[in-house]
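Hi U.,

Before I forget, here's the chain from the pilot set. I'm dumping it here mostly so it's searchable later in email.
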Amino acid sequence: MENNIKCIAVGLQDTGKTSYITAFWAIEKNGNTGHQLTFDKYPSDTSYLDSMATLWLDQTAVQRSQINITDLAFDLIHMESERKFQMAIPDFKGERFKLILQNKTVEEVDNWLKQADCLLFFLSPNPEKKFNEEYYRAISQEKESYQPLAEFTVDAIDEWIQNIELLKYIRETRGNLKIAFCVSKWDTMESKQIDVENWIRQEHLFFYTFVKYHFDNVKYFGVSAQGLDYDNRGKMTEEEVCELTDQKRRAFVSSGKNRDYDITLPLSWLLELDV
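Structure:
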């Protein structure tokens, strides 16, 4: 197959990797989307993808990976040029990457990084907690009520600093890879009326600066794999969401301020196709 490009989906726990892969499969597997990329051939075993897609179609939160997929390959075709590619995307648990931050060797991740040509790097816009509150509460206790501190763990570090440490490891292991940064749950951020890159620059300047000086070829995307927050859908009914699903106008991607319902755009850019 031409241009056998390998991509690895990277991200800490709960950053949207599984949701994106699930939505990609649910939307693109039957073709006829008009999107830049679609499937040329299906993976040999789609049972995992099908089970996750059922949850997505039923508007049920897609669960974090309970298994590690090390050989998931999407054979894709660019609709306009008819050029064919293979995207190999292992959907590792986010915990796997956290082990790296603890200076532990994760052989399967290392092996993939050595083969990877590009990365889909997922980021959470609103981590549930920035710090290990119990640890820092213990630090601030008065001397007379002092108790031994809990063991310091990676969870005590700001998540965006964890992302920098992971990128540092990737830079040292694999070099200057092309990266599509995908900020998940972008539907919760649209009210800010700001494009993704400027939001990163304003809210996480240290992260943005690190990326700028260590990786030459990057692009930022806002991604909403679900299309909405199931627990806070406002006036949107299940029937209306089903209609959007049928119209392929539910999940979306943003690289500026506007929505694009072609969820393949980050992959298209990584494949160096015109987007």
